[in-house]
Design goal:
globular; 75% helix; DNA-binding; mainly alpha; homotetramer
Chain lengths: 203, 203, 203, 203
DNA sequence: GATGAATGAGGTTTCATTCAT
DNA sequence: TATGAATGAAACCTCATTCAT
């Protein structure tokens, strides 16, 4: 039925609007400082409507994370697709990660600060593994790079932790303004260290 | 006066008890889920007493961070003091960091999760730079190691970010149980990667 | 729309119920001793509902004053409307004021005691002039009476102060039970004094 | 014993210092906004010491009122002592009342605002009749004036209510800045009205 | 008597969530 | 399905008062 299709479309748009509003507001003000009514207002729906699409505020946060991570990961995937080696893909990933999140500073805060929810959050939602896809992809890239013989056969999980941990802390330092450094220069230096350390022909 | 001395001692003990209770409770339940009354109960003082020692809940959290960071940094400093080279000190630092925080799992959670508690904090307290001392010391170690000729003359700030970011994310992965790995093995692998990447005579 | 009309009506009733409950409770226990939860219970709404209609407790008190003053002033206005001279209106006003507030003793307390509750209010809300309308009307009556040639051309502001001050203190003495007098007799005596003046050789 | 005398003197001074501090602070900030610790600090005693001299904050307020009223009444009494007729004393009383309280504006607030404690206060302390002495003296003056044949034989209680009510409301209007009038002019006008009476054809 | 550290009861207000319309 | 008015639980912090020293 056409009617149903249109309705369905409308609903999907509404859901999407809510998520967008949630991401923007969470990023800007932090999870606890964000009121559902604010999100509803930005999404141009009633407060109660939010609860037709999401069980509660926690779920909305988790979905918001998921959307962001998926969106950015897909952008990254498509952009590194044309790189000729996995090593290049890996380094390109690093650069893109920094670029994508610092282009929208509130997303940098979102990722480096808000993502780390309270201990109770992890206990309450054991299935909450927001970075899993992201770090898995990173690990996969490391595996490929090793197979292609461009980095030494290190443990790929360890490599992924080093990579993600470094990117994440770099963004935190930048987002909180703790350090007064040029982000692009710092990024190059870090890539330099990681590659020169990791390359098979590093000598 | 003896009286004053005894009172002072009592007060120091009380303050300490409150901080300990705060750290434990914050770690367990998260900052926003922790009630002052819980902390007070654990510290065996009245609710109001907490406010004789700390201006408010925020300050209590910040002081708790500071105490933990200082305490652990001092332990680390004293333990690596006998290491003969800065490179050894650096790697020892890494191991001790992981050890000290995973020996007390709530501290691992405290550091890797609660420390990032929400942008609200960084916005409200721009002077809140809990890790400054820690990463500064790390950077100093890197400088020394470079001067001693044991790692290539990389940018020391970049090195510190890689080191701390990696340690931090490793603890997070461990604390949230996202990954099912042996912490000690993972740690060795990471150290392996970082050292083989960094050494001057890495070939 | 019918629906909206009904809802609006309901809301007006709810607002009114809250104000009534507030006046009664404030009068009975005093502003600082009155808990919002008590008011809510008396008004048969939830605590939070009070805050849908009033910004906070302070505003509720001020609105309550305003409502009472307006209500009583309107009653008085309509009742003195048929009096043939302004002098009669003026004296009638005096009697009605005493009557209206002593018929509902909690209102007498509200006006003579709670209204003066603490400088904090006057300092915090300089625009809080609860009696302005009331004394202005009183002053206007005095002007008219003078123009009609029934009292000497005294300063009207001074007259208003005498009238209101006397009525107010009379109610206070009555409400606090400090004096053991017949209110109606006292009222007559006061009116007698005010109209006839003090001096023996006034003729 | 000399010792005891000195100690007693010290204690009286301490009690007096506390009352003075209380009056100043209550006047300035209002009863509810005043903390016992502030009073103690101003009186240069420990918080607990206040409770050696006064049962609680309420009692301290009541004593403070009493002291002020007594002090001012005594000043007035001594100043009007040389007036040759009771009528002159009465009018002089009015002027002195206004003068004494407006010379120290915080006292004007204290008397016209803070004196009217909450309804519960009057219920809790039925013996709290702060103005009794004052209005009794006023009434006595009226009696004398009547006996001396200088005002008509009106009811003296009614006269006292008019006098005190007018003075009190005049001070309130002045203290809260509601009216923009010259206090001294207004005072003269009021006295004029009270003495000359309202009616044009009063004979 | 004097101290002041410690106590702990108490209340306003917010806001996630519900549910009658 | 959508609304948004209503709900009511929940907790930080203050400060009068106490009491061990």
């Amino acid at each position: 039925m056409k009617k149903n299709k249109q309705q369905l479309k409308k609903q999907i748009q509404k859901r999407s609007a809510i998520i967008d509003a949630a991401i923007k507001t969470f990023s800007l003000k932090g999870f606890h400082q964000t009121k559902i009514s604010e999100i509803a207002k930005h999404a141009e729906v009633a407060d109660g409507t939010v609860y037709l699409y999401f069980k509660n505020k926690d779920e909305l946060l988790m979905v918001a994370f998921d959307e962001i991570i998926n969106e950015k990961l897909n952008i990254i995937k498509s952009k590194i697709d044309t790189d000729t080696t996995s090593l290049r893909k890996l380094l390109h990933f690093f650069k893109l990660h920094v670029k994508l999140f610092t282009e929208e500073p509130h997303l940098a805060r979102f990722l480096s600060i808000e993502l780390r929810q309270s201990s109770e959050f992890y206990q309450k939602y054991p299935e909450f593994k927001p970075l899993e896809k992201y770090t898995n992809f990173l690990e996969k890239l490391c595996q490929d790079t090793i197979q292609e013989g461009n980095i030494k056969p290190f443990d790929t999980k360890a490599l992924a932790i080093i990579f993600y941990g470094t990117m994440d802390f770099l963004l935190l330092e930048w987002a909180t303004g703790n350090q007064n450094f040029s982000l692009s220069k710092m990024e190059k230096k870090i890539v330099d260290i990681l590659t020169n350390g990791l390359r098979i022909y590093s000598s």
